[in-house]
Design goal:
mainly alpha; elongated; T-cell leukemia translocation-altered gene protein homolog
Length: about 100
């Protein structure tokens, strides 16, 4: 019994999709002002996404390296070089008072 319900639901979804697509194609082929605006905005969106994609291909590693630097800790990220079994408080307790240097 549930198989017929699933088939009915699926056929309704396909019918509504075909109806929407045929109406969309009819509007697309019409020379209407709203269709022209939609075409312009859609083209702008596609060109922007392609430009972002190529910019990321070219500059992606540079941007990634700016935010995720490897090596010693500091102002711009990274992790300090401490012994793995000591916490930050324990390793700093044995050292003399450190001052901030720029």
């Amino acid at each position: 019994m549930e198989e017929s319900w699933d088939f009915e639901f699926l056929s309704r979804m396909v019918d509504s999709l075909v109806s929407f697509l045929s109406e969309f194609v009819d509007d697309w082929l019409a020379n209407d002002m709203r269709v022209a605006v939609f075409k312009i905005l859609f083209t702008w969106l596609i060109i922007s996404l392609v430009a972002i994609h190529f910019a990321w291909k070219v500059y992606g590693n540079t941007v990634n390296d700016m935010y995720y630097r490897q090596g010693t800790g500091g102002q711009n990220g990274g992790t300090p070089d401490t012994l793995p079994h000591l916490s930050g408080w324990e390793s700093a307790a044995g050292d003399a008072m450190k001052t901030h240097r720029e």
